[in-house]
# Entry
Amino acid sequence: MRAVLQRVKTSKVTVDSKVVGQISKGIMALIGVGRNDSFDDIKWLAEKIVNLRIFEDENGKMNLSLLDVKGELLLVSQFTLFGDCRRGRRPSFTDAAEPSLARELFERFVEYVRDTYPVRVETGVFQEHMEVELINDGPVTLLLDSKKTF
# Structure
């Protein structure tokens, strides 16, 4: 699984002019599911997101986690995180999970985070055209990959 994390002051997802997910201070995470991903990837990525120390402490150092600051989490599925642009001009998505598997693992990921951590979790809508708005705090943007390819 892959994620693009953005530390945000606020973020929201809109589908067909209706807000479907919205958070205040926290992390907006774009989540991509790979064709070889499993529950182990879900656990690794969830633990990493909620415990990553990307929020500032009283000294201005990035030393606090989402859990420490009681932040919120907005999870948005995005298969294009598995787009391979190394050749040609059109991304290849051969490493992305098929939609049925991606939906299953994304939903299990959301459920796992909700059941395991004391974090308010909002989501977008799987396989829908979404408009994502955010105020990036910092800006702080990080890339994660459960297979540790980068």
Remarks:
- The two ends are 12 Å apart (CA to CA).
- Residues 99-116 form the longest helix (18 residues).
- The mean pLDDT is 97.
